[in-house]
Amino acid sequence: MNLILLGAPGAGKGTQATKISDRYGLVHISTGDIFRENIKKGTEIGLLAKSYTEKGELVPDEVTVAIVKDRLTWDDCKKGYLLDGFPRNLFQAEELDKFARIDGVVNINIDPALLMDRLCGRRVCRECGESYHVSTLNGATTCARCGGELYQRKDDNPETVGARLAVYNEQTAPLIDYYTKQGKILNFTGTEAPAEVLFEEVRAVLDKLAG
Ligand code: AMP
After folding, report:
1. Is the N or the C terminus of the chain less surrounded, counting Cβ atoms within 10 Å?
2. Residue 134's domain spans which residues?
């Protein structure tokens, strides 16, 4: 089963991605994680990506599409994969259609008013990627799941979040229509309830899709 995870920044894609890929044995491919890793290692891709991610803008399509196209040729993708954060615009979606067969698109809808606070208060585990909101941490600085160090993403600040949300509305949201027309969209509503609640709904739908 090959899936796409769609939703605004802060909708809770990362948490659902871990749960979905665990349950269905899918490879979790996050273009944001790939860029962050490259930035950390100081690779050529990282140097290029840094200027865009810091401003909340999209890294150029040629670079992003080439990375995903290559990643999908790896052997582990034969068991199925979950794309998280890709595609981000219509061009990327059309390119993806040329080299991949997508079975379903999990779309998490969420009240936009919640996103700024969610993102600016987000703390992420360096080891396993689990995310938390600072208001629930009671001062804890390590991950409850694996003990890893929690950090704040550089782009989780009000200015960059504003830019990221604008990019989502202008460039990524039209993909909902694109995949609806393909009959692949699976719509869910993200809430403030624990992630397990949403995952139960996602699981019920994906169990059927997986057959
Ligand atoms: P994310 O972790 O998905 O929020 O992505 C963090 C940042 O990485 C984004 O704000 C973009 O700058 C960049 N990025 C991630 N995925 C893509 C993509 N599909 N196309 C272009 N840029 C991307």
Report:
1. C
2. 122-155
CA of 8 to the centre of ligand 1 (A): 11
Do 96 and 126 fall within a single domain?
no
**How would you classify the pairing of strands 150-151 and 122-125?**
antiparallel
6 with 95, same domain: the answer is yes
Residue 38 CA to residue 61 CA, distance in Å, equals: 17
What's this model's pTM, rounded to 2 decimal places?
0.94
Q: Which of 4, 31, 47 maximizes ligand 1 atoms within 8 Å of its Cβ, making it the mutation to test the pocket?
A: 31
Closest residue by Cα to residue 5 from 24, 25, 29, 23: 29
The CB of 168 under 6 Å from ligand 1? The reply is: no
CB 128 within 8 A of CB 26: no
Per-residue pLDDT tens for 80-133? 999 999 999 999 999 999 999 999 999 999 999 999 999 999 999 999 888 999
Q: Which residue, judged by its Cα, is nearest atom 19 of ligand 1?
A: 86
Same domain (yes/no): 148, 50? no
Mutate to test the pocket of ligand 1, among 33, 35, 171 (most ligand atoms within 8 A of CB): 35
